[in-house]
TrEMBL record:
This is CarboxypepD_reg-like domain-containing protein. It comes from the Bacteria. InterPro entries: DUF5686. Gene3D superfamilies: Carboxypeptidase-like, regulatory domain (2.60.40.1120), Lipoprotein localisation LolA/LolB/LppX (2.50.20.10). Pfam families: DUF5686 (PF18939). Keywords: Signal.
């Protein structure tokens, strides 16, 4: 009996043992790495036993296999790696550690290294071309895209140094009582003096999710600025100089100008390449390839590429501008890039250093200049760790002024490298300067020019200073004075007002507005304002109801033909706005306004209402605006923000409802409007500005409320207007306009021997408009039938411009030559015109 019972137990134990043995050989797990670098490898095909079809392709370095059949062998295969086979037993089925060895490529038969620039009949003879072909075949993407989630830290340091100083400069009167700053100066290699004048350090935590949804967040957790904590204009100016770049892209963005990448697939059309050496970088063997532009007059770089000899990954690169770089205010650019390559398909940024030499006037090497240096270190990458949704939620504490304040102990630990002696001196020097009245006056002048406002005393700014004088036919000479409250860059409220006086009409005009923001996270704010002024209507299609916008009438000093079509406006507005999502604003405006002609003898806005002739239009309307700015970057958290330079688009959708009877409103009407604006880099051929607008008014309204195709009778440049149209020449119930303007950045003129020395840049543009106007909308106005829409054919203008006119680095003048394409039989038109203006930019 005992024996029989024991036999049952033995049989049960045997069955359990066989089951466990079978299970063990039906499953396997482990990790795959590179035999040489120990880096994790993904994208490996795993074959079970002797099957010719892979069982799975790994998406990460770790793998788990569960099969219906017993596994006794696994084969691991990946392109450019030797195939590895592992025998599986119950004892070895778990924690398998597979190392794959890279195969040597046979596609390059022979590498010939040249220290001097050789001449080749064609690029296929160049050994560097064979190497770059392999780089293009394996074009890598940012590794952050392959993981479900990721986090990493980013340390950014921006430093400005005054360069090429000498004893004569240091003895100038401007430095009286400021001469102690030269105690912090260092001698440069040229024997001149370099003086650190600005230092900004920032720590960011980056979070990302690719699955199931796409989410990213870059959280500023600490910031330290030398002496300029309250002067964000300078800090923003510094950060605006830089853009993020990817060396594998065909075009690299510097200052929103496209430079051809030496690693781009079309690089051989711009650059000459020369394989000069093989070196070791962080234990990796690398080809060292020197590249330089075929023509020195184009926007391009010169430098070295460091390409891994086994994987053909870019380990590093140097990019330096040529001596003839045609960028305003810039003498030179240099960038050093360092990448980590975790596998064959991806890269991770490791360290970027960019140095820019800025000079306001001359491009000579000996000119006094500012060296702006930015270094970014990326570290502590972590992947595929669960992230709480709260990580991506905007929090109130992130917008607190003190959120980024950290003590010295934090920075000593956070910095990847300690500060140099000169960098440490910047903080001390700027602290001393802050106590110097003369220095504060200099900073105040800069702030005034940058912001357009002069800080008269605590909490009050006077301005905008650039709107003080204007001229038009109704007012004659016009003086405008304004002010605003300003206690700091993060003010949650602001009050603004202005008053203006016309010496011809002897009338006082005014405007005032107050705004208050309740929440820094979703930027919920309300505002109200009122004004009485003379305005040039019909110069903008997608208008806003803001009170403080500068009127076109006050900015026109010289114009072609007579311009009597000015309007007298009495307007009151209240609004509420909120950003439920980052860079997406919902705004509701309620507006009451009365509009009449400011010059009734020459310009009529009279209309019929219920058979009565009216000269003053009363309008009450509500507007819902949806405004999207995807990719835009802003500084500050107050009611006003500074925007960083980007290529972000602007997308606006507006619905306006006019309400008859509300506060004496004369008309019910419905209007829908759409606007899209986007600058686009077109490789090394420059940048195209795209602007599209469309809209429809669904009801009959008088001229004061109609959609007017924007004309421009001034001799100055005005964005999104038609240079050869008269004011009110085209009026439309339904309209669409398209403006295309391409900036070639001197690409064409650089081929002309004598012209290229002037460093001029060419522009080409075309503008078009189409619309319709009903007979009922014409009939409602006294002079209605003299107005029409471009309905017979699409109205268009075309032309070209020359920009970058000036001397040295100061090239801020632009001239446009405009031709009218059709509707040439109309009276009092201009078929050709020249516009000019200032255009500050790189």
């Amino acid at each position: 009996m005992m024996l029989n019972n024991n036999s049952k137990y033995y049989n049960l134990f045997f069955l359990l043992f066989i089951s466990c043995l079978t299970y063990a050989q039906n499953t396997a797990n482990g990790k795959i790495t590179d035999a040489k670098t120990n880096k994790e490898i993904s994208g490996v095909d795993i074959f079970i036993n002797d099957n010719s079809t892979p069982f799975l392709k790994t998406s990460a370095s770790s793998f788990i296999i569960q099969s219906d059949s017993i596994i006794y062998k696994l084969k691991f295969s990946k392109k450019n790696y030797s195939t590895e086979t592992v025998t599986i037993t119950p004892e070895t089925a778990e924690n398998i550690f597979v190392k794959l060895s890279q195969e040597k490529e046979n596609t390059i038969a022979e590498i010939v290294i040249h220290n001097e620039k050789p001449k080749y009949k064609n690029k296929k003879e160049n050994p560097a071309y064979a190497i770059m072909q392999e780089v293009w075949k394996r074009k890598r993407n940012n590794g952050l895209e392959k993981f479900d989630t990721y986090t990493y830290k980013e340390y950014e340091k921006i430093q400005f140094d005054a360069n090429n100083l000498d004893s004569a400069f240091m003895s100038k009167k401007i430095f009286n009582k400021l001469d102690f700053i030269f105690d912090y100066a260092d001698s440069t290699a040229s024997g001149k003096i370099g003086l650190p004048i600005f230092l900004n350090e920032s720590m960011y935590e980056n979070f990302g999710e690719n699955k199931p949804g796409k989410k990213t967040k870059r959280l500023l957790v600490a910031q330290k600025t030398s002496g300029f904590q309250d002067n964000q204009v300078i800090t923003i100016t510094a950060k605006n100089l830089y853009r993020d770049i990817n060396i594998y892209d065909n075009t690299l963005n510097y200052f929103d100008i496209g430079f051809p990448s030496p690693v781009g697939t079309n690089g051989f059309s711009t650059y000459d390449y020369n394989l000069t050496d093989t070196i070791s970088i962080h234990g990796e063997n690398a080809y060292k390839i020197r590249y330089q532009p075929k023509r020195k007059d184009v926007l391009a770089f010169q430098g070295y590429l460091y390409i891994d000899t086994d994987s053909y990954a870019v380990l590093g690169a140097t990019l330096k501008s040529t001596q003839k770089i045609n960028v305003n205010f810039i003498n030179s650019i240099s960038t050093e890039l360092e990448y980590d390559n975790p596998d064959d398909n991806t890269f991770l940024p490791k360290k970027f250093i960019t140095e820019i030499e800025l000079t306001p006037f001359a491009k000579k090497r000996t000119s006094k200049s500012i060296i702006a240096k930015r270094s970014v270190d990326y570290s502590q990458y972590e992947f595929n760790k669960p992230l709480d949704d709260k990580v991506f939620t905007r929090r109130e504490e992130e917008y607190d002024d003190k959120f980024v304040d950290k003590d010295d102990a934090y920075w000593v630990k956070a910095r990847p490298d300690s500060l140099s002696k000169s960098e440490q001196g910047v903080y001390e020097m700027l602290d001393r300067l802050q106590q110097t009245p003369k220095f504060n006056r200099i900073v105040k002048i800069y702030e005034t020019l940058a912001s357009g406002y002069y800080n008269a005393f605590k909490g009050i700014d006077i301005g905008p200073i650039f709107s003080i004088y204007g001229k038009n036919e109704v007012e004659g000479d016009r003086i405008r004075l304004g002010a605003r409250t300003y206690f700091g860059q993060n003010d949650p409220w602001r009050v603004q007002f202005y008053t203006a006086y016309g010496f011809k009409d002897q009338q006082v005009k005014y405007g005032a507005e107050a705004r208050y923001m309740f929440n820094r996270v979703n930027r919920f704010m309300i505002g109200a304002g009122t004004k009485r002024d003379i305005e040039q209507l019909g110069v903008q299609l997608t208008t806003d109801d803001g009170i403080m916008a500068r009127t076109f009438a006050s900015s026109t000093l010289f114009a072609r033909g007579e311009n009597a079509s000015l309007s007298s406006i009495n307007k009151t507005n209240i609004f509420a706005a909120i950003e439920p999502w980052k860079n997406f604003q919902v705004r509701v405006d309620g507006t009451l306004q009365s509009i009449k002609s400011a010059n009734p003898e020459k310009f009529s806005l009279m209309y019929y209402r219920n058979g009565d002739l009216r000269k003053t239009l009363n309008d009450s309307h509500v507007t819902l605006s949806l405004i999207a700015r995807p990719g835009a970057k802003f500084s500050q958290t107050g009611v006003d923000r500074y925007e960083h330079g980007t290529l972000a688009p602007t997308i606006i959708l507006k619905y306006t409802r006019g309400i008859e009877g509300l506060f004496n409103g004369d008309f019910n009407y419905n209007r829908l409007q759409f606007m899209f604006y986007k600058p686009v880099l077109i490789g090394s051929w420059g940048k195209t500005m795209i602007s599209f607008e469309a809209g429809k008014t669904f009801d009959n309204v008088p001229l004061g409320l109609q959609n007017v195709i924007p004309g421009n009778q001034s001799y100055s440049l005005a964005q999104n207007t038609f240079a050869q149209l008269n004011y009110y020449e085209f009026v439309a119930d339904t309209y669409s306009t398209l403006h295309l303007e391409h900036h070639f950045n001197g690409k064409i003129l650089s081929f002309i021997p004598l012209i290229k020395k002037l460093k001029l840049r060419e522009i080409a543009f075309i503008r078009s408009a189409y619309g319709t106007l009903s007979d009922a909308s014409k009939a409602i106005n006294v002079d209605g039938f003299k107005y029409s829409a471009p309905s017979e054919q699409i109205y268009f203008e075309y032309g070209f411009g020359i920009e970058n006119i000036g001397i040295g680095n100061l090239r801020i003048f632009r001239v446009d030559f405009n031709w009218r394409g059709n509707y040439l039989d109309r009276p009092d038109i201009s078929t050709f015109g020249i516009k000019a203006g200032f255009q500050v930019g790189f």
